[in-house]
Fold this sequence. Notes:
This protein is an all-alpha fold. It has a domain at 44-116. Helices cover 64% and strands 0% of the residues. It has 8 helices and no strands. The longest helix is centred in the middle third of the chain and has 19 residues, at 59-77. The radius of gyration is 16 Å and the shape is globular. The two termini are 24 Å apart. The model has no long low-confidence stretch (mean pLDDT 85).
Amino acid sequence: MVVRLAVDWKLDCVHEPIAFYRQHGGNESYKHRSRFVEEMGSWLREMSEVESIRSCSNWPLANNNYIYHSAVDQVLLGNKKTVYGLSKELPWGKPKLKLLLSMLFPTYYILQRFRH
Length: 116
């Protein structure tokens, strides 16, 4: 919603936290990871049609975040070949390293040890 508003309206920001959220195993995005990834992909496809959003300097970060979460979903499903293909699309950094290590070591250990 905020991204859509920012396309047509001038927004300002608050430089202090005004809300907090917790991440835990009971979150809907964790319990239904595949659906979360699918919705993120749908949002990215929709937003890629809006030039002012697609041309934003942070657009590649949103796309890399989607690729990373897609790969984590595939790790949990045991599709290591797909994980390797997705990891090749990511720039070098902690998320890519974490994915590559998840193909060599027990998945749970890697995903818990290196939070993204």
